[in-house]
Amino acid sequence: MDSSGPYLADDLSVSLESLLPTGRIVPRAKLKDFLDSHGLTPLDLQSISLAYWAAENLDANEILYGRLSETDKETTLRLQLLRLSDIKEVAKWN
After folding, report:
1. Is residue 29 within a helix (H) or strand (E), and if so which, with residue range?
2. pTM above the 0.85 mark?
3. Largest CA distance in the chain
4. Rounded-to-integer distance, Cα 77 and Cα 34, Å
């Protein structure tokens, strides 16, 4: 389960990049490289001040968060789109 999360996140990032116009998505790899270079992890983006700082440096205005959970019967991916300009949830998917 733990190894599925990064794989799915990378796959989703690549899929979104291929569906949307060029430059609309900050690739997950670029975000990860940025966070690694500053000694941070994706979980650090839960701090709104860190999320704003990262977004400003990466020229982003929204963050798509994902959480993978598993029960005996199913695996669920929950996605949440957060608009940084006013810290509002824009959309939620399960």
Report:
1. helix 28-37
2. no
3. 41
4. 25
Q: Which of 61, 63, 66 is nearest to 94 (CA)?
A: 66
28: which 2 tokens? 């997950």
Contact (CB, 8 A) for 59 and 69: no
- Match 């982003």 to its residue by tokens: 60
CA–CA distance, 35 with 61 (Å, rounded to integer): 17
Residues 10, 91: Cα–Cα separation, whole Å = 20
| Model confidence pLDDT, tens digit, residues 37-70 | 999 998 888 887 888 889 889 988 888 877 778 8
Distance, in Å, from the CA atom of 38 to the CA atom of 45, rounded to the nearest integer, reads 12
No. of helices (H) and no. of strands (E), the chain: 3, 3
Distance CA 67, CA 17 (A): 20
What tokens appear for 82 in the block?
């957060």
